[in-house]
Fold this protein.
Amino acid sequence: PIQLKNRPHLKLLGAFSQADTASSVGSIEVGYRISCALSAFRKNQNFFTNYRIRMKWRKTIMNALVRSRLCYGCRSWRLISSEISRLSSFWNNCIRSLVPGGRARKLNSMALLFTNKQIFAKTKMKELIIFVNEQRRKYLEHLIRAEDFTMAKRLLFCAEKKRLRGRFVKQFDAVLEFDGRSEFQFCKDSI
């Protein structure tokens, strides 16, 4: 017989799973997502900082190459604040490269010349947490419309009595909280 070793983390289909972080994405997955996105950003950095190319094209390529790698699988993530902070910080830094002087500092200060809100207003792009929550909402709407026997729907909306101790937040509840709609209204709107 073949013996299998237990591993603290597993890479499957381009995403990491950690045994000790059942309630969140995990630092290994977030670090991996950032390193993949950073690699794509650095390969195309000259394109992103070439201000003679229209902003529209640079934004499209940024979303296609960098954000897609950064947010791969985000529809099923449950993020904690430290993971949101790491991902958002990286994304904000990438967006700053699209704006001339986006990384410039004020005179005699370490403060940046433009705030993140000003950068997002100039580029007309979404903050990362808004994009992630939109993806999660769309996925839940897709699952609501799916057949009742699909595995993903059964796992997401299961009503089992047995569960682990501690606070248990279902992804559906987290999306409802962010979206500000009732469970009934969300299901009604998604059909």
Remarks:
- The CA atoms of residues 148 and 154 lie 7 Å apart.
- The longest strand covers residues 9-12.
- The mean pLDDT is 82.
- The beta strands are 9-12, 15-18.
